[in-house]
Specification:
Layout (H helix, E strand, L loop, with lengths): L1 H31 L6 H17 L7 H18 L10 H23 L10 H4 L1 E4 L2 E4 H22 L2 H11 L1 H6 L4 H27 L5 H16 L4 H21 L4 H15 L13
Antiparallel strand pairs: 1-2
Amino acid sequence: MGFYLIQTLNALAFSVLLMLCGLGLSLVLSLMNFVNLTHGSSYLFGSYAAVVWLGSGAPWWLAVPAAFLAAALAGLLLDRFPFARFYGRNHLAQVLLTYGLSVMFADLMRLGFGAEIRSPVLPDLLRGVVFVLGMPFPIYRIVLILAGGVLALVLWYLFDRTIWGAVVRASVADRRMVETLGLDTRRVFALVMAIAAGLGGLSGALGVGMLSAYPGLDEEILLHALFVVVLGGLGTFRGTVAGALVLGFAMTFARVWLSEFAGFLTLLAIALLLVLRPDGLVAPKLRQV
């Protein structure tokens, strides 16, 4: 009993990580109709930023905000050039652009941070374990679960219950009408891109204590985030949460029960779900988060 409870908590921690990363990708896909394959690079950049920050002796509780701001700034710069020139183009052009950039960023990060696996120097407060039914579970993962839940609620409130969120949705639904009201939709979309990239960096900073940071992690996380968005149903907050939970639990327990076939079983489960529900677990309404 204790073993399966620990694995359930592990699956929940991994699901929270996938959810935060998937939300950033879903924002850009659903609100801006832009395929951004550099999102995995934002995650890995946030992981490396957290490793460097924690290794420098700076206050550990600022590592996640610092990673968010660094990734958000990078996203804002990319929005100015070259993303802005590709917003109105077809998805194939966007995929070619962003995939090429992701390859470049991967090489740059390998050059700057090395090819070895890098793990953060966690503070003493986050290094311990708690015992659940007599079995140890890392405190860090409990913090990850709680922080992820709080951040998800904040994002939901921001985009679903505030005037700014209404402006974002209105800008997508009828950009010209919003502009006639005197609002600069270009700035709105730039801010959305910055927040999305920042979420990638934030999830990387939170996840580095569990997954570490290494070359190639950006591609793995990007693939998982795409699965989350497609599984949940593009354009829905609840769908992204549901997709992250399904994928996180499927991957965790597939590794527990049949580790040699974990990848195959996970992909098979995703394929079956998409056959049964082509629109995702939560059918999208309009293009909204």
